[in-house]
């Protein structure tokens, strides 16, 4: 599922398989929103499971900037963002994924 993926993979779509039957979404387009995308593993796992339909749209919001509460990523956000972009580009799912770089509170204010 993750050819040429770089970065850490946290909580993927398979965490939902026992709660939401993935087979119900094979022929149905979905709209999906993810706030906090990091390296992109989760949004790509959703694209390759629940979001298989060509008309699915998967939106992600992340500012990819340092936070005081997440010291483990301090000064790594430019690299993480570049790896995210590379992961999306290499996934074969690029056309389904809409990237919003910024804070969700500001992005939603503009909608």
In short:
The protein has helices spanning 41-47, 77-90, 104-109; strands spanning 31-35, 57-62, 97-101. It has 111 residues and is α/β, with parallel strands linked by helices. Strand 1 (31-35), helix 1 and strand 2 (57-62) form a beta-alpha-beta unit.
What would your notes on this structure say?
The protein has helices spanning 41-47, 77-90, 104-109; strands at residues 31-35, 57-62, 97-101. By secondary structure, the protein is α/β, with parallel strands linked by helices. The protein has one domain: 3-Layer(aba) Sandwich (Rossmann fold), CATH 3.40.50.150. Strands 1-2-3 form a 3-stranded parallel β-sheet, covered by helices on one side. The mean pLDDT is 91.
N-end to C-end Cα span: 33 Å
Number of helices: 3
Return Rg in Å.
14 Å
How would you characterize the largest beta sheet? Answer: 3 strands, parallel
How much beta, percentage-wise?
5-15%
What are the secondary-structure elements, in order, as H or E? EHEHEH
Spans of at least 5 consecutive residues whose pLDDT stays below 50 are: none
CATH superfamily: Vaccinia Virus protein VP39
Give the strand order of the largest sheet, numbering strands 1, 2, ... along the chain: 1-2-3
Give me the CATH architecture, please: 3-Layer(aba) Sandwich
Structural class: alpha/beta
Fraction of helical residues: 10-25%
Give the overall pLDDT as a whole number. Answer: 91
- In the CATH hierarchy, what is the class? Alpha Beta
What is the third-level CATH name, the topology? Rossmann fold
Total strands: the figure is 3
């Amino acid at each position: 599922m993750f050819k040429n993926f770089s970065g850490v993979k946290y909580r993927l779509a398979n965490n939902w398989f026992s709660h939401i039957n993935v087979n119900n979404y094979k022929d149905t387009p979905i709209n999906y929103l993810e706030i906090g995308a990091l390296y992109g593993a989760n949004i790509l796992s959703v694209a390759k499971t629940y979001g298989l339909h060509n008309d699915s749209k998967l939106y992600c919001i992340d500012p990819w900037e340092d936070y005081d509460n997440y010291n483990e990523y301090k000064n790594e956000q430019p690299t993480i963002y570049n790896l995210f972009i590379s992961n999306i580009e290499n996934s074969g799912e690029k056309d389904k994924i809409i990237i919003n770089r910024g804070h969700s509170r500001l992005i939603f204010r503009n909608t």
